[in-house]
């Protein structure tokens, strides 16, 4: 991996205004927050995604939101972005919602299985590797009697939305630390409860 290669941080979500504040769009919300910090705007690219470009301490970082009709098909646009911008898989970060963590918590890790997340599964299958970094944005478990499918497509509660700026700031802090100082330091910053 060349030291001047760019980073690609791909937030996963479903396109369209109806899905904007749903739990399955946590990845979009986290990359939106990082783009806001730098005053960057997302622009449509001809590769099934919108992309914003920022610079973190002199390092080029591409923020992306795949826009295929479903989060479950995120792999093809992510792979196209890697090829187009010459990003090695070691510098790919996928930001996803995760049922295994309470809201307001998260975890950064390299590799591992998709844990039932079809968007992450798609990225791994299309790339032929799972050796990318994942930021797992906790959304908690559905209440008893509610299906996972219904839960992830439900909008965040008023209380969760009120806390969203702090939660997405923690994600953005961890992503900046990852680019600046590496995975171990970023893990130390994020892998704790809010």
UniProtKB/TrEMBL annotation:
Positions bearing the site annotation: Discriminates between blocked and unblocked aminoacyl-tRNA: 14
Keywords per UniProt: Cytoplasm, Hydrolase, RNA-binding, tRNA-binding
Coiled-coil positions: none
Positions of the catalytic residues: 24
Principal localisation: cytoplasm
Protein's cellular compartments: Cytoplasm
Reactions performed catalytically: an N-acyl-L-alpha-aminoacyl-tRNA + H2O = an N-acyl-L-amino acid + a tRNA + H(+)
Annotated site location: Stabilizes the basic form of H active site to accept a proton: 97
Residues annotated to bind tRNA: 19, 72, 118
Keyword Chloroplast set for record: no
An example Gene Ontology molecular-function term: tRNA binding
Listed EC numbers: 3.1.1.29
Keyword Cytoplasm in record: yes
Domain of life the protein comes from: Bacteria
Pfam families reported for this sequence: Pept_tRNA_hydro
Gene3D superfamilies (alphabetical): Peptidyl-tRNA hydrolase (3.40.50.1470)
One BP annotation, GO: protein quality control for misfolded or incompletely synthesized proteins
InterPro entries: Pept_tRNA_hydro, Pept_tRNA_hydro_CS, Pept_tRNA_hydro_sf
GO cellular component, one term: cytoplasm
Family: Belongs to the PTH family.
Subunit text: Monomer.
Job of this protein: Catalyzes the release of premature peptidyl moieties from peptidyl-tRNA molecules trapped in stalled 50S ribosomal subunits, and thus maintains levels of free tRNAs and 50S ribosomes.
Protein name: Peptidyl-tRNA hydrolase
Protein's organism: Kitasatospora aureofaciens (Streptomyces aureofaciens)
Lineage, opening ranks: Bacteria, Bacillati, Actinomycetota, Actinomycetes, Kitasatosporales
């Amino acid at each position: 991996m060349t030291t001047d290669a760019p980073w690609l941080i791909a937030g996963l979500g479903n396109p369209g205004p109806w899905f904007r504040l749903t739990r399955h769009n946590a990845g979009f919300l986290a990359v939106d927050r990082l783009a806001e910090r730098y005053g960057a705007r997302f622009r449509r690219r001809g590769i099934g995604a919108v992309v914003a470009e920022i610079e973190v301490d002199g390092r080029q970082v591409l923020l992306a939101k795949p826009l295929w009709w479903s989060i479950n098909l995120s792999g093809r646009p992510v792979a196209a972005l890697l090829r187009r911008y010459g990003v090695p898989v070691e510098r790919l970060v996928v930001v996803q919602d995760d049922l295994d963590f309470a809201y307001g918590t998260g975890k950064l890790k390299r590799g591992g299985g998709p844990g039932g997340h079809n968007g992450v599964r798609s990225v791994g299958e299309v790339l032929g590797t799972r050796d990318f970094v994942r930021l797992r944005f906790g959304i908690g478990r559905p209440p008893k009697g509610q299906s996972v499918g219904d839960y992830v497509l439900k909008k965040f509660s008023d209380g969760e939305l009120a806390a969203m700026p702090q939660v997405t700031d923690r994600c953005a802090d961890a992503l900046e630390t990852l680019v600046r100082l590496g995975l171990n330091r970023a893990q130390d910053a994020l892998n704790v409860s809010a």
